[in-house]
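Inputs:
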Amino acid sequence: MDVTEQAVKDFRHLQSNLDQFFLIIMGMIVLLMQCGFAFLEAGAVRSKNSTNILIKNLMDQFVAGIAYWIFGFPFAFGNGNDFIGYTFWATYELEETKLALFFFQYVFAATAATIVSGAMAERCEFIAYIVYSILITGFIYPVVTHWVWSDNAWLTAGMDYTFNNETVTIGYKDFAGSGVVHVLGGIAALVGASLLGPRKGRFHKGSKTVVPIRGHSVPLAALGGFILLFGFLAFNGGSQLTISNAGDGEAISLSVVNTIISGSMSALVSLIINRLTGTSKWSLLTTLNGALTGMVAICAGCNVYHPWAACVVGFFAAIAYKLINTIVTSLYIDDPLDAVAVHFGGGSWGVIAVAFLHRTDGIVYNWDQASGMALAWQLCGLVTITAWTAVTSVLMFGILKLTGLLRVAPELEAKGLDIPKHGEPAYPTEAYGHGWEEKLAKILEHVELKDAAKNMSSLGDGFAKAFLGAPVKQTDVGPYENPEVNYMDTHSTTNLNDLESGKGTTNGTTGVPHVTSIDVKSTTKM
Amino acid sequence: MMNLTENNLQDLKDNVDQIFVVLMGIIVMLMQAGFAFLEAGSVRSKNTTNILIKNLLDSFVAGITYWIVGYTVAYGKGNSFIGWTYWASHDLPLSSFGIYFFQYTFAATAATIVSGALAERCEFMAYIVYSIVITGFIYPVVSRWAWDPAGWLFVGGVYTGDNGEEFNVNYQDYAGSGAVHALGGVAALVGAALLGPRKGRFSKQNKMAVTLRGHSVPVAAFGGFILLFGFLAFNGGSQLDLTGEGSAVAVSLSVVNTMISGSVSAMISLLMNRVFGDSKWSLLKTLNGALTGMVATCSGCNVYRPWSCAILGLLGAGAFKLTAFTLEKLYIDDPLDVVGVHLGGGIIGVIALAFLKPEEGIIFQQNRKSALFLGWQILGLTTIIVWTAGLCFIMFGILKLFDKLRVSPELEEKGLDIPKHGENAYPSEAYGHGWEKELEEILQEIESIKGDDLKGNLTKRIGQHINKSKYVSAPSNEFPEVNPH
């Protein structure tokens, strides 16, 4: 073998290795999105249901890990007919170099399933959740994938058309799955939420009241959101599936840039829409959902838009989010995470947007029959995916509901699911507050209850004094605005030895040490 | 027109290999955060800062110790037992720095396993000492035996077959079921046994074990998610290169196998607790089960057939449950079930390889060679356990003799955050702006209760009032479960 031949052979191996690794690393980051969803949902539910929603998001990857492995992937990418595939059961006889692709598709399947848990939060039975996760990752989603991304993909293959004596093939385009993943997840969430019914106390149809049931932790939800925003870049960038061909790097980079632009635009527009028409506040959660909607909407064509078109996509994504949200709420369907608005709203706009804004074939660039037909195919894909998902979801959730397995008992819903279902309250009271009972006891010693109840400000003072310990004599009494400076219950290390040896001034009844001096340095660190 | 030469390609391959190993190492670094939060969520709020700083410092203690002496001992030139060159990476070629970094992250992982078992009662100085000894000596020596070309476990033995042909059999442990996890698990076991249980955890007279619940399931779950993500890099990255023939396949196979084993182990753990445990769908046990399954695949995820990993998941779940049960029976307090995950999973991982490795395992060929393979796996596992247990016994024993191992009972009672770190995890003065109104209503209601002993059951009362919904029977669920044995 001469040098050139060897070099070519080596080069091909390198290409293959790099392509596989690209899928693996992008897939791993998309797997982290499971964590993102988990915390977005955990922060958005009440503390009594936090463990419940966390384990449901944790289980997605494991249910998919088995169901998608054994039969989901075969249905999706096995050799078969136009409807479904039927080889590679449990990756049997799957070429080794295709394992990375299997992994990447698996994380997408897990994503489709996890969308649904948001809409069903706080009232869905655990067994029902396991059942629908198996069916979504094992059947509903893989079949759609087969139609769009497999070798038998009839939606993507489309048909040949002759316009002006030129023959073009026009089919459904969906790069990272606005339709395949997000419309599917959104519709399943919609069906599930409506069959499940709203949470108790959420709506009052008589007076047409909608009660905003707040989640227990904005920081947790925001953490989840940050992770999702990060993971989405891999979700869209990784959909290129290879890195070693000419133009791959550019396509991936374009996808990532477009995702950021669309997400940003959608976030800002959602922020403003909410300020003007919603709760009139600068809402963190709405902005976050808006950003996600923008990224969902760009999925279908992030590799083929000019960046300014990504702006347009993001703009209308925010509007779609608000629109779908309003419609869902007006139908008295309870969607705790706005999953339907984000995923169906963003996804359906995303599918349609490709026909308009595709940089070479879009209607905005060519007003002709071919682009019109392309729009028709996008709509065809959208309708097909919606119909398939709606019908299978109605069957699935309907059967669960008829057998009484869908929703938890009302007593459980009232008390919270964490303890009866999981035996693990998210924030067990006995694990907290060592030292806080002492403080609360001090409140009762120091605060005049009758007066305090009538006069808020004296309560505040009494509370501060009693709750936080006696005011501290400071050497530096600077113009601090924060009253807490006077009441820090930690102290400089010079008192450490006293505390450990049992000396030092301590409150006899509670054991909480009085601080007699504050180190100026530690104060200024605040 | 550029001539593509072998040199150009080799340069590119070298670069790719190095960035691969660095990137995987960076993700394994994130596992430090994962451990940190898993442990933080599983301890009480009074000890949260303490466990966080202990996990934070693992990276830094290892960063110095492994740099100066650990890598030397592990991968320096030397004999089959220990190495003695590259002190503080002196003379280490730059092209090996990526691998050095990756190995460092593994050392930090081995050390951080131990902190889970010693949580809530271990002295800070003792923690620093054991971290230095584990990352500087105990772990590097074992990693040399198992992974350095000169290491005696890696070299194995040469045997003569029936037909006069010579063949080699050695101890195999791709990503460290034995070298990292069993080692960490044993160190944790010895440490926890010598440290003693937390106050209130066991009552030997009544033969009871009290579940001391952690303060935040969400925080623990967050740590778990990060660990599940990082584990893929832990196993995938152990290929150590990307451009060799079949390397990417090995990486892909590692990742897929890790996911399958973790998924099966998680599902089985979930079901086992539902059927045989406390009849709940337990998040924490499921999480630990998933981790055990992933630990069990470490030894051979680069070569297993995916179906073997389903079996490993099943065995891992069983090993976890068995180990946790045994430890409780022995009155050894392991707050994070670290020993179950790492020692239980690690033992399964090492032994199972001899059965399930394609073509060489006992399932595939039953002959002298595969029997010897099992022999070498057992030999390696036993040596690792004995080496670690012996050295840890001496190390923790000396610390205990000088009374440096455990914190004083008063500190344990009040919590370690304020006296040790001056940083309350959740300082009360930083909370409650806006809560005064709720508190006002609570106080109004409390005032209306006359003649009751307010201080007793104060927490329960506050809870009831805050929650307004009448949870009648729930309060009793909020107190620790007492499981009579």
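Chain B touches chain A through 100 residues (CB under 8 Å). Flag for discussion at group meeting.
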